[in-house]
Protein 1
Amino acid sequence: MARTCFLSSTTLLLLLLFQYCSVYMAILTVGSVAAQTNISTDQSALLALKSHITIDAQNILTTNWSNSNSDICNWVGVTCGVHHLRVTALNLSYMGLMGTIPPHLGNLSFLVGLEFRNNSFGGTLPTELSHLRRLKFISFRFNEFKGTIPSWFGSLSKLRTLDLYGNQFSGSIPNAIFNLSALQVLNLRNNELSEIPNLIGSKDQVERLFVQGNALKGHIPIVVFNMSSLTILALAQNNLSGSLPDNICQHLPGIQLLNLVNNQFDGPLPHKLWQCAELLNLVLAFNNFNGSIPRTIGNLTKLTELDISNTTLTEISLVGNQLSGSLPADIGLGIPNLKWIVVGMNKLSGVIPNSISNASKLTYVDMTDNSFSGFIPNKLCALTNLEYLGLYQNNLTVDTSTPELNILSCFTNLRYLRVFILGRNPLNSPLPISFRNLSTSLQKLSLSEGKLKGSIPNEIGNLSSLIYLNLELNQLSGLIPISIGRLGSLQGLYLLGNKLQGHIPNELCQLTRLADLVLGSNQLSGFIPSCFGNLASNLRKLSLKSNLLTSTIPSTLWRLEQVWYFDLSSNILNGSLSQDIGKLKVLSYLDLSSNHLFGIIPSSIGDLLDLVTMSLAKNYLEGPIPSSFGSLKGLVHLNLSKNNLTEAIPKSLEALLNLKYLNLSFNKLQGEIPEGGPFTNFSALSFVSNKALCGAARLHVPPCKNNTLQPSSRKASSKRKVEVATEATLLPQSLWRRVSHLELLRATNGFNDSNLLGSGGFGSVYKGTLSDGIDVAVKIFDLQLEGAFKSFERECETLSNIRHRNLIKIISCCSQLDFKALVLNYMPNGSLEKWLYSQNSSFDILKRLNIMVDVALALEYLHHGYSVPIVHCDLKPSNILLDDDMVAHVADFGIAKLLGLGDSMTRTMTLATVGYMAPEYGMDGIVSTQGDVYSFGIVVMETFTKMKPTNEMFVEEMNLKQWVANSLLSEAIAEVVDANLLVAKEEDHDYVTKIDCLSSIMRLALACCAEPLDERINMQEVVATLKKIKIKFLKDVGRRVLLNRPRVQAL
């Protein structure tokens, strides 16, 4: 019988549930595998990127991105989405990475944000990045990408921000970018782009467009001004030209910042600028705009900063254009908040409107270098808040008909006035006695070339805060007031080109802060005050030329060791020149011509290695031209004409490759005129009217008689070189002072501990005083130490053969069987190390920078200025000694090495100091000049960070060099430099200048420490760069201190 089976309802339900779960688990398994596959794709793309990175300065990716760490969502710089577990953002900014971007990165298909700021990625961008269709944000700011900007950016339809600032992209901006409907910010600043496409404005969604600092040229396509969504348009620092459309604001209703500074725009300023109602910043300075300033500019009621004009209005700055016409008569009306009006360096004319007095909050008025005329309005004296008034180089005059209304008198009402510049105007006025009532805050007073008459009032001594006084090129007469000696803060005194008479008052010697003293082209007579030697600490420029001075040159003037400009020409000075003239080590300009000087020319002038111009013409000097002049490698102008010089022209002058002008005429010179170096460019005029010169026919002198046979063989030439080298080696030692062991015992009180200056690797150094009163440093070698004898010989030999103002000078060597000592110049200010780590030392940026320049010059001489390169091998702060004037001298040559001719390196078993020695020195014993360069870089970093390279904070991969490099990458240099060098931004007017200077110094230091060694710069490049940094720093600081000019941020 057939059997029928019935399942219960419960059993049936269980079967159905089991089948559903099986299907669901299968789906989950498939989904999990797919997700795993996709995250593996992302991992492969990231590892491909890692493999294309050639330098990982901070070892971040090296240690963090690895197969052993399989969870890529926890990798540094990687962000994953919550739902899909795919990479959605990649940020590798500020990691010090160098390399290229591989095409594999295009596989990160869920990527929304891509940011590689401040690295060194280079090459071109791979086309595969166009696959990243979800991207909304891209920043490759501050890298080294090259080539044209890829047009495939136009396929990234969701892109909102594209930031390529600070790369090397060139060519035209692709039209395709402006088809991106979501794009809001486009930053292409500081590249090498040359063209703006005509279709740039076809889409109006872009809100911020930055293309300043490129190579754009020609006119701005008109469609740019149709981009109605723009709030920021920055086209500064290009070569764009043409005029601005008068209706510029019609299609830019929301524009808030318009920056066109530093281009070639011309034509008038648009009269309808007032239609840009939302405008906050308008920067048009340094173009070629002309015409008048539109009065309607006052209608820009939201303008808060004006780098061409401003009205809410605190500043009007139209400096450096070609604007013409007159200032609006009502310029001072309706702008009660105006504080600055700066219209200098234009072509403005007419009178200065009286309405300017209505802007009662004005603190800064600069109208220099225009063509304003008429009387200087007395209404200016109503601006009682005025701190700066610059009217230099116009056609302004003063009303002298009523003395009490003389504008020069009414300025006594301006109690806050700090800078008053009125020079190069036909004032035709005497200096009023009421000047005594000028602001005691006045720091700069310049009335040069103003046709001023009468005498300098004695009351000028009441201006107690004065730093700069310029009365040059006027018609002032009478005496120099002795009251000027009360101006204790004075740094610059300029009285050149007047009719001043009488003696130079000794009271000027009280001006110990004086840097420039210019009294030339007057009728001063009598003696040069010997007390001028008191100005040695600060005086940089001394000009007494074209007077009636009759004394000898006081010996105290040779103490002015900071002077770079020294002009006593065209007086009646007599006597001979002292060898002490060689102490003026920084002298660049020397003119003693047209006097009654006699005697021989001091050979010590050859020590003035910075000399560029020298004239001793029209005197009664005799004897030979010193052969030491051959050391003046920077000399450009040399005039020794009209003297009684004899003997031959030194062959050493052939080494003066920069010499462009030479005049040896009207002397009694004889012998052959040199033919090498600069002499190939001089004509007969340089040698006319001498006794018996001979040489080339082109010089209009007879040919020389060939009385001697010239050695022609290589052997003879080699022999001559050996003889010269031997003479050079022996000569300095023959000039040493003889010092006995007994005298050194007496000088140091028996090597008493109270005389101990310090101890080093091979002995101790004592302070001593020799029998003639000379203070010395005596370095005693401990002969029980291995290597001490060799160290003595090496240091004695090295120091005896080198001579440079920034190397320690040897006085004598004392050598007995059981006693070895060096007698050296005593350095009263100790070592750089002492100063760096002294609690009470005042050690600002400039002092440290000067010391680094000194050390660099010393190393440059050792590496490039001696017959064979000398490697110091152990440069560090304790081996840098400072004299009375804080001039640095490199010392301790105990392990120095001489490289053979043609050799660039050698090897040693003697190690230098840990932390300062180059890597190749410590690992392989390789000694080269580049090792010194590395040590110098470390010393520079320590000098400005006050952080030793052996500090305990430096562990594992972090060291002083890396610490500084990281700070530069993150623009945080203020966090690593010595805190004593900077104060808070709001308290330090030079904060930005200092940061810029310190950043440049640290970049140079890192270049010195480059690895491998063949990528390091040399000391000649170091010296040149340091000097540029110093000059820029002095100019930037000096511009603020002396001129107090406004800092226009956009410029």
Protein 2
Amino acid sequence: MKKIPCSRSAAAVRGLFVCVLLAALGLAAPDALAQRGGRPAPAAPAAGLTEADTSIGLRLKATRTRAGASVTVDAIVPGSRIEHMNVQTGSALLFVLDQPVTSLDQACALIENWAAAPDGPLSLVLEHGRAKSKVMLFPIGAEARPSAPTGRGAGRGASAAAVTTSTEQALAAKRLAIRERRSPVPRGPVVPVRGEALDPWVIPGLAERPAAASRINVLHRVFIDPQTGELAFVGRYDPAFATGTIDYSTLLHDALLSPAPSFSLEPTAATKTAVASFARQFDQQMAANLSNVAAGKAWLTGIFDQLLTNPALETDRQRFLARGAELLHVPASDVPTHVQAMLGRTPMGSPPWVNFWAQAYQTMGAPEAAAYIRAAANKENDPAAFQGALDLLGLRPTINDLTARLQSRALTESVAYARLEVAIWAAIYSRCGVPARRWQAAGDSAGRTGDTRGFRTVIDELNADLVRERIIEPWLNDLVFTEQFLQQLHSMPALVTQPVCRDGLAPDSELARTFLAADWTLKNLTVTPELAARVPGHLTPTQFLFREEAARGNFDHGGVQFRLWLTPETVTLRHDAAGSVVEFRGGNPGLRAEVLEHTAVASAGSRLTREMLPAYALEISRRYDDYARALPELHRLREAAKLLALVRWAHERGLHLVPPESPAPPRSLPASFQRGFWSAFFLAQNGHTFLGLSASGGVDFSAGGDWVRSSVAPEVKESALGQLLGSAALGRAAVDAAASGDLESARALADQSARAMTGDFDISGQPALPQVPEASPPSPVDAALIQTEVLAQTRQDIDTMERAQKTLRQTGAGDLARAEAHDQWSRAEEHLAHLHSLLAAGASPLPAKQVVQLLRAGDWESLPKPQPPAVATAAPTPPAPTPAPPSPPVVDPEERARLRGEITQLRTELCRIQTQLRRFNATIQSDQDQRADWEKVTNDAYESALKRAQEKFEDFSVDFPGDILKEKLEKATDPAERAKIERALRLVDRFKDAYTTRDFSDWAAKEEFTREEIVEGIKQIMEICEVEQRIKDYLSKKWGLKRAIAYYEAGDDILTSAYDVTAEVVAWRRLKQLNQNSDSFLKATEASGRRLRKVVAEIHAREVQLGLDPGSTKEPCAAP
């Protein structure tokens, strides 16, 4: 379309400037600032009106008298509400909604905007003869209010409850027709909605791939048996490419059947016909938009409304809002409100209106104008800010000069007003970079005559141009819209594409699926600008072309059809002379472009288009790896290209290739897709706005074999075999480390083994690494197959053990989860033992493929076993007599009874500890009732244990004369004696800390002192201090103990109490603390675990003393 005017908003912003400037000069302006009360901005008038019907029942007429142009009431529609009011034909219309009437166009616009969205009563000021009157027309259904008292009467006004007559109904229909004809604002504000954005990269109807046996997604080399053609893949898994593992065997099967395939998603015949018809209709609509301003404006406004309200256009809405947010420097959530203000749908002076225009002038490079807009809207509340805004615009000298000349009557009010209005716009336009020639002549004329009508017309057009050039065009230019956008707004038919396989490509093959996914990805890549978030700098073809056109100032306004498709680039194969080892280099596919049809408007634009499309394809090819990291299917295509290159190389050498695995079952592709991969894009330049169309895609590997480059490199084999042997040595070390429980080392060794196999880890100069065999394996293919499988299973075992370890360390893990974790750990350990046995067996007599299958099936009995070392054969010796079983030890009955009693006590303690651990691991938090019961039990135990310990310890821990130990430390000279005293002092400090904090769990949590060490420390303290009579007296008086040795028992009792608190109470009493610090919880649990293991060991020791098997006295614990 030729021009996108700003419609109502441009005139509205000029209106606010005018009203506030009148106040700045002190000129009379009846209700000049009343626009802030919520009335809508005036609509853009239809040029050239001399008379017009209004929807309120008045026919208005433009007349010219000696005083100048005016608007008069030409007729009143009979039966209308206005007929019963104080309105006479021939009356001059002076004000509408408190705005001075300047033209018939403006008066009609104000009235129709009010009728479309009434906000309060419609006020009209009329003059008949020399008498003036004010008429208030209330909206239907509004509450009737009397008009303000005047000298001519009070309470005059029409009742809102008046019955709607048939005439009123006719007028309502007439109002609707007028609104449609004059294209005013809609009846109400558009309410934005949110829909669901579809993921363009998901291919509907395509089943997920099963996990591949290869466990790699980057192919580095292949080992080939030249005699049989059997091969082994060697590579790595790179998580940067989110493909999952790639089924190289199945792809190789497909490539052997179709070494030069091609594929494309193409529209069906019916879709081609429908698209051709749509394109013709679309061209006609664009031509209509270009030829008629009103039609173009309605079309563009409709686009804005659909983008904000149609939930089917969520992707387009997000793009539209994101661009607006970037342009206006506001949050995306604020953009819909700004759009409404830009389209003139918000009342002038309202906060949304002010915010939009302030942001617009900020965007245009005039922050002073933005500040003036905000200050003017809030002048009454903050006059100082308003005066400051005038100063920012540099208007103070002009205002002072005009005020002085006005007071001295050197200027008339109209001339002073006109000159100030010109000055304000001059200040704004100079900051916006608008050339003075666009408004200077009209401004000079207004300043001479005082008549601003011509100047305001220029200002309105200039503001509309500014909004179009600085806001709308940057907002829309190169904005890409979806296929759904075309279907919703332009009745584009539903497009259907179907997979087309060529050159022997089987439609149900994995290779066809790979080509389909790559083509789908390419087609979406060219219509998805959001990809720039994942691939910085990404542009769609239309965005790339527009950027170049804008840079060169040369735009192609013609029609163009082009295609983009993927083809293979150079893949380099390095191999030994026998062809037993092949190493891959390169392999990135490339993008090609071709202009199919071009209807050029200018030859320069045509040349630019034909030049830029190949440049775009070259840019995508150059950054293929960046795109492959964001779009995994492009990486999968790159890997398929390696296999296609391998097949072509093998065919040239007459070599038969045998994939290591059977192919996956064939799966057919979906028959069709409801997608056409079309897009719409905007181009607004030099007053023209276009909506263009584009589509692209395809994958073609049918070209000759020039892209496959092979070269003989003798060092390839030696290097590959060395890397294979080094990887095997590291793999064995990883198995051993994992079996011993050193998961951190096992993980590192497994990773090094995988990297060594592809040459990414140099094992030379690493003395700490395992010994690497010097002899090459008999069959590199077999060795690679087995090593790859063993390494993959080792990593699985490490993963399993790490998960189990994590579960066992979790504070909230239940009994079942912990039992499963123990079982997983045990199975992984057993599996690693089998792997160790297999590796120790050396070369296997079984075929490598069979060994791999047995490994995957877990059939360890059928796998080779390590042979015992050979020994020299000697003469047979007679078998030694079978020794008689040892007789059980003779135990004194009294001793046996004592041991039995101790076993009973230990088993009781064992049950108690087990109960404690079960309670630790129960998911008590999920059951508040059980939790409350548990807390009661533990609280009681806590109080009992604390009281028991405190009774025997409190005074001692506070009053114990530590200075005695310090005195002895000063006198001691023997290093051993000094060390004993220092340790006793630390233990005393520990006692005091434990008492002070009331946290006896600290005793068990500290690794420095074990339970036995604390008891022994108490004995040491008593031994050191026993000679001091005051200690004996202290113990006797304070504790009632007659001999010092009794404190040993008290200390042991205190320690027992401390363990009760640690294992049974503290964790729950201090639950919040322990939840925040899981280490404390783990230490408390581990302390109980250590105690449990010691108790079991003591039970077994006593059982052996009795001549029993360890564990033979085990009995079930009583229910708690």
Protein 3
Amino acid sequence: MEATIAAVGVDRFWHRVMRAHTFNNNRAIYRRRLAMVMLVLGSPAIAAQKDIDFNRDIRPILSDHCYACHGPDEGKRKAGLRLDRQEEALKTLKSGNRAIVPGDVEKSTLVQRLTSRDPDEVMPPPKEGKPLQAVQVELLMRWVKEGARWKNHWSFIAPERPALPSVREKSWPRNEIDYFILERLEKAGLKPAPEADKATLIRRASFDLTGLPPTVGEVDAFLADDSPEAYDKLVERLLNSAHYGERMAANWLDLARYADTSGYHFDGVRFMWLWRDWVIDAFNRNKPYDAFTIEQLAGDLLPDPTREQRIATGFVRNNMTTDEGGSDPDEYLNKYVVDRVSTMGAVWLGMTVGCAECHDHKFDPLLTKEFYKLYAFFHNVPEKGLDRIRTDNPPPRLPAPTPEQAMRFVEADFRLRDDEKTLQDRINALGETQEKWERETNAKPPPMPGDEGLIALMRFDDTLRPSTNAAAAKAIDQKIQAEPKQPLAENETAIGPKFVRDDKPEFADGRLGKALKFDGKTHIDLGPLVAFERTNAFSFGAWVKVQSDGAILSKMEKKPGYRGFDLFANDGRFEVHLVHQFPDDAIKVKSKDKLAANQWLHVLVIYDGSEKGAGVKLFVDGRSREVEIEKDKLSGSIANHEPLRIGSRNAEGHFTGLIDEVRFYDRALSAEDVRLLVFQGMMPILAKSGGKRTQEERDDLRRFYKENYAVDYLRSEAALARSRKAKEDLINAIPTSMIMEEMDPPRQTYQLIRGDFRDKGERVTANTPAFLPAIRKADVENKDGRLRLAARRSDAAGGAAKGQSSERTPDVTAAASASVESASENSKGADALPAASAKAAPAKQAVKTPVALNRLDLAVWLVSPEHPLTARVTVNRYWAMFFGAGLVKTINDFGSQGEWPSHPELLDWLACQFRDGGRSGGPWDVKALVRLIVTSATYRQSAAVTPAKLEKDPYDRLLSRGPRLQLDAEFIRDNALAVSGLLNPKIGGPSVKPYQPPGIWDGTDAKYEQDHGEALYRRGMYVFWRRSAHYPPFATFDAPNREVCTFLRQRTQTPLQSLVLMNDPEYVESARALAERVMLEEPADLTKRLTRAFRHTLGRLPQPDEIATLQRTYEQQLAEFRADARGAETLLAVGESKLPESIDKADLAAMTAVANVLLNLNETITK
């Protein structure tokens, strides 16, 4: 038997045993089969295997094959059997049987069902398509036989620092990491790889710590440094580089789903680069990870939060949003919160918490109710599910001025206050100056307006008939009568006024005599009194007292075309329309400021015949008013056969109010003409003594004088308007960032039945899952103490990293916030968790009772010492950043479906080191962790592969060799720009739009406007990230669109990637710049030039055969470009960087082709 097992292996032997039996319910047959199994279990081959560990060996089997029907999800659980909890798995079932009887295989129904040959009895059911392998059945049976020892899931138990393992090769380890790695290698019969050569090490470390290649000078300096500390010094230099923050932030942006657009539907633009820059700075300042966590999840809830701490909360707001009008706001608000919970769960818990949105988690002990308790932490933001903002950030948002903007704001605000005071002084003096003006005016009245160009005048002095310029009116009539029924007599016109209503017109006191009343039903039909074309200059207007919206003057057809023109009162503003076909062929302008209602105003429209919106001027009370041009395309005729109407557009738009003295001119009046017309309306008031004027007349006269003749007032008013605009422009230029705030009173949260936002179940309050340590009352009450500790460490880290001052910037945020609809607090420049004091005022959004938990409690809980997941998940993610895979391969799933750690003791040791600190750094010190990893002998290994390692460690899970990974998309681009000399190393700032193929944004709600100059050569992390139309070179190299949290990027190698490197303008231009660079560095010697290009690109010296290949390529290309000068010019014309005038174009083109080959090498895009 033992020989047979040894020969065929356990799996094949098991199948032989099972094939030897057909199903029979006879218990004796079952006992004989089980006895044979027990004989197998007792064999030396099986007994010699390692001890069974429940978490490593048993739980993964149960989770993958059993939990779907016998796990945490109560709604899907069958037969009342639950196998994810010990007490449930061992209990007596309703049938009287027990699934697991520790130590007794025969009485355990689990074993019976696993070994059954009956398709209706065997587990898992065949229809599930997940049968157990023989070795898995053997493990389960061994486990039951040995007592079914149970353990809580390993990742839900707080890590404890293990002792360093003993190893045989004691000279190899460089730090603690290496002991754990070497122990596994020695057990597997493997040896570590030799240390990589220095050229490889500097390239690997440079890309890993800055995302940029080392320069030739840096490589030479490192190679020349023979000191034992050479590599450590290299690492310190890279850790202190400002580009370190960029490299570390790039991975965090994937996790945080950072993008420059909103994502859903129209995918409108948003501005979150201030948050992105905060992340870069946080890594450069080595902000402790606990502070990094707290500020991003709840910086707004800290006592007296700084501006930067509030910007940090943009992490939560990075989710996709919608502005599509047909969307349900409640549905999308729910989507936003679900995304935030799922992202928090993935980033800090390393768990798929989103699986519990609709039902209890099928594999992990997370209930749906607990999901919505987490949901409640993020459900209290004063935001709308439907933003309706496509070009700006939806609130809550925070303006964040630069120091220069802050100082300019202070200056602008001072100037504005000074101009306001001056204007008030002018207003106070108006009474005296107006009296003097009245005396002078009455003594010498101004001339009355002439009738030049006047074609119609209508005064409502108990009559509706207008007075006209007969010749002009006749010409108009002849013009618009295409086929008159009979010729017009010499003194006859087609004008015939008609009051459209059943009863007689009603007159009232007007500005000049009588005015006609309009009640929203009346209008005057004047027939074809006037006719103008789009190329005619003309003017028209009236005295009006507006009581409600409607058409004042109109000569316009009915919808849908609305051909013609009109003057319309709408929502306190005057609108002017000149229309051929609305809205596509029309001019529409409206007064920018609202005007007083129920008050006599003189309104006059002047059009210059230019067919442009700018050719329309709107005067109110003799003064030109600022207008907004809403439609500005007029190419068709505006002439029509409609009558001129007063008080109505046609069958719609009836006006309510008073109208007096309607005028039409066939010319564009001057500003002085208009002022004299208004002056005429003031003469009756001026003729009265002050005591006989009504209050309305006194107000009208004061307004007319102030707006037309009070010179000092007008100058001060103009100065104030300029100051206000300067301040407004400055506010609009201040960048904003979306932030978190709490609602007061808080929004209620309910468990949603099956995740349906319309079906609310039980009300829930914020709390954490029961399977993890609870938020203790002491945690909440002592929160300030923890924050003070984090503050001191954050201050120390920031000062050490940057030496920056903690001086606060001027308080401009509060002043700007009203304009950007942000409920912001004072803007402060310090970047540390503030030290709380007993007298410190609570944050505006702080919870009011110890019972109500908020995001700050959640954040503090996540980084509490007893939390089992945060430290493990974080160090595992950083490990994956450098080695390509985590110690736990499923970096987003530390639950039951997650993979067992390749080195569990190392994972716990690193987690404790990171959480508690040690000789290499303080608690939560990211740089110390990174330093520990990249200085280890494990990291410094060569990536060379041997046959033995391919057999025993094919995927490098034992870390038997060093990492060799393709660069991320952004770093591939950065590398090309860097080696070519084109890279713009500026850090931070708004996103940029480099070269992009045409048409990528077609079908979206925006136009791609490429940047120029230095913006084209910024690092890849600053490229504009549009979710619905991803930047093509990045998409080709597997960069995510960041619609959701991305834990680890895929790495593919496809022909399309080579095509990008060969043909994308960014890479072609980089190749040309690299060629130009080496030609200037080595102008005479081709071999030296090619060697120089090789070293710039790969950081090492080329081999002789490599140089020979490049030389042949160069010579072949040179011959082709000598024969094809136009082809050379076409190649060299790619990109905007300037081409040297004195260089040989064929030579440069040939060298560009060689450089293009070098940039396309797999080694070039690999660290």
